[in-house]
Amino acid sequence: MSRLSIEIEPEHHRQIKTLATFAGLSIKDYILAKTLPAKAAVDPTQQLMESPKNAARLKEAIAVPSSEHLVFASLKDLEYALGI
After folding, report:
1. pLDDT at position 49, please?
2. For residue 63, how many other CB atoms are within 10 A of its CB?
3. What mean pLDDT comes out for the span 21-40?
4. Residue 61 belongs to some domain of the structure
5. Could you read off the pLDDT of 35-57 as tens digits, one per residue?
6. Confidence of residue 74 (pLDDT cuts 50, 70, 90)
7. Furthest-apart CA pair in the chain: how many Å?
8. What is the rounded distance in angstroms from the CA atom of residue 37 to the CA atom of residue 68?
9. What pTM did the predictor assign?
10. Closest C-alpha to 41, from 51, 26, 52, 30
11. N or C: which end of the chain has fewer CB within 10 A?
12. Residue 49 lies in a domain
């Protein structure tokens, strides 16, 4: 197995982590899903963004300063926080 490392700004890391969390994926799985062609897979982020309510909450979460950013331990915790 190979390792890939990139240097990014902390804010970009936070945004990617938030998007991955909302998609119910690890950062690794989220990046792979976004960069490699999928075989007719449903994009969880797109699925979440189809709901105007979830889209607004996601945009709000990304805009929150890092010091106020919440990290969820599981998808269930995230769903509970979103009220879904």
Report:
1. 73
2. 9
3. 86
4. yes
5. 987 665 667 777 777 788 887 88
6. confident
7. 40
8. 34
9. 0.46
10. 30
11. N
12. yes
